Please model this.
Amino acid sequence: MYYICNIKQTEMIVEITDIKSKTDNIISSYKAKELSNEEYINRLLDRINEIQKPIKQAIKIIESLDEILLLTTWAEIRTVRDKEDLKYILDSAEQIHKRFIRDYAFLHKTLRKDMFGNVLKDFKNTIDDFEDSFFEVKNVFFKVRKNNKLVSLINSLF
Model:
């Protein structure tokens, strides 16, 4: 008695032509999807670009926020409303900075460095620049402008 897949031949008769036909169908379906090396690389690069696109958009957003944040160093704070607006700006900047850091940490852990290293580096550098600007603005409003000697010196220069 012959066994096929631990089943007695008498219980299940399998024709070799059926197996050949099924094998051909499976292989044919794979060959139909087969890509040339160039097509494969192009599709891979397209996927990499798709993943990089939102990171690059985030970089542009951070750069825009950074420019706006630095403008506040030139703002005059005269009213209670101005102080509230400044507090809102700084609180918002701090919150979005924390979000960018979390996003970077996730991406850095998840994405391959050999494929995404440059865009991740740009993202991190942009986040760091934004953080520097944030602390610069806080320093201007909460240290420099409260130092009367320094304010007098600056005013005398103009």
Summary: The helical segments are 16-33, 37-71, 80-110, 113-144, 148-157.
